[in-house]
Amino acid sequence: MDKSTREATACLLIEGGTLLYGQGFGAEGCEVGELCFNTSMTGYQEIMTDPSYCGQIITFTFPHIGNVGVNPEDEERGKPSAAGMISRWLPTKQSNWRARTDLASWMESKNLIGVAGIDTRMLTRKIRSMGAPLAAIEHRKNGSFDLPHLESQLEAFPGLFGLDLALKVTSRRPFDWSNSIWKWPTGYQPAGNKRHFVVAVDYGAKHNILRCLADVGCESRVVTADTSAQEILQLEPDGLFLSNGPGDPAATGAYAVPMIREVIERSDIPVFGICLGHQMMALALGGKTVKMNHGHHGANHPVKDLRTGKVEITSMNHGFTVDQDSLPAHVLETHISLFDGTNCGLCVKDRPVFSVQFHPEASPGPQDCHYLFQDFARLMDTDS
User: Fold this and answer.
1) Which CATH number fits domain 3-156: 3.90.1150.10, 3.30.460.80, 3.50.30.20, 3.40.50.10170?
2) What was the pLDDT predicted at 79?
3) Sign of the dihedral through C-alpha 50, 54, 60, 61
4) How confident is the model over 213-270, as pLDDT tens digits?
5) Which of 115, 141, 264, 289 is deepest in the core (most CB within 10 A)?
6) Residue 44 has pLDDT above 70, yes or no
7) Count of other CB atoms within 10 angstroms of residue 313
């Protein structure tokens, strides 16, 4: 055992037997999940609190994590869903005027485990070659690890294929949302022009999506993932929004797809989906979804709008994708990834129904994708 191993306070165990040691930060304990990598240079607080990362351990490819710090405004949900974080170096000291505390302290307060000192370039290559392997992490300040227990935890984890996680992260009860996007110098403020009432189905909805809806004049009633079509239509909304979320869309679709299909068949209200909402929209329209090798996770993904030829820089977070060849004739592909050509958007001929795989609210471009919320609002203007 070399010196670095003896001084380790954290370890990473990958299926197949690879065991790596590093320095722990944040909370002590152990966690299991699917190992993915994220290429974002910042936004780590939003990523760790994004419900779409439920069941995943996130490797950040950017080496300097922590320099922006954290603050209570930028959490996508109150309770983090990610299983843990892996970084090249220990979190750096925060250096941003909006920061209220450092990343390591925040991770500990949120019961999140971090592992630093890992060669993240090597790990990224491993993830690409293995196809998002399952992994377990453990952080002990005294450097004493229970490896047999960690191995048993890893063996018991089923993976994300066939797993419905939306019911795990959805809100417990419906609630109303009207706060708008962050604006200088006041920060987040209540929306002004409320001209549309939208039902937003919470499969793991990010708060910034709801803010973007409010910014284009939508007051949202956020409902739980298993809300029925009858319950939604009884609210008489101007539009229906299908949120992002974690897990296998086919598993969540067991109860979500019949609802989406019924709303589309029984009404003419505009329907807009993002991420998991996009995938389940495809399923409801007759398409299929498949598991990707290592998924798309990052804030620098180029996507082409096939209708205009415009290339947008997008934020992505998904391990499943819509099978383009499975889409029926009345469903048009609107966007594709310029990394691998996978589907990133669709719409229905002669119906106010559309969705995208990427996250327009995450502002990677920074705002070249916000037109999608405006399109949704215009469809509701026309419908009314």
Assistant:
1) 3.50.30.20
2) 87
3) negative
4) 999 999 999 999 999 999 999 999 999 999 999 999 999 999 999 999 999 999 999 9
5) 115
6) yes
7) 16
Q: Which residue has the higher pLDDT, 178 or 127?
A: 127
Spatial separation of the C-alpha atoms in residues 235 and 361, rounded to whole Å = 25
Domain-by-domain residue ranges, the chain? 3-156, 166-383
Question: Quick check: do 3-156 and 166-383 share a fold?
Answer: no
Tens digit of pLDDT for each residue in 156-179?
Answer: 999 999 999 999 999 999 999 989
Choice among 278, 296, 297, 359 that is catalytic: 359
Considering the candidates 212, 275, 347, 369, report the single residue annotated as catalytic. 275
Q: Which residue has the tokens 């998991």?
A: 276
Question: Is 155 tagged catalytic?
Answer: no
Q: Which two tokens stand for residue 293?
A: 């090798």
Closest-CA residue to 176 (of 218, 217, 227, 232): 218
Distance CA 48, CA 115 (A): 14
Does the active-site annotation cover 30?
A: no
DSSP 8-state assignment for residue 135? E
Question: How far is Cα 306 from Cα 151, in angstroms, rounded to an integer?
Answer: 46
Task: Answer yes or no: 275 catalytic.
Answer: yes
DSSP output for 218-242 = EEEEEEETT--HHHHHHT--SEEEE
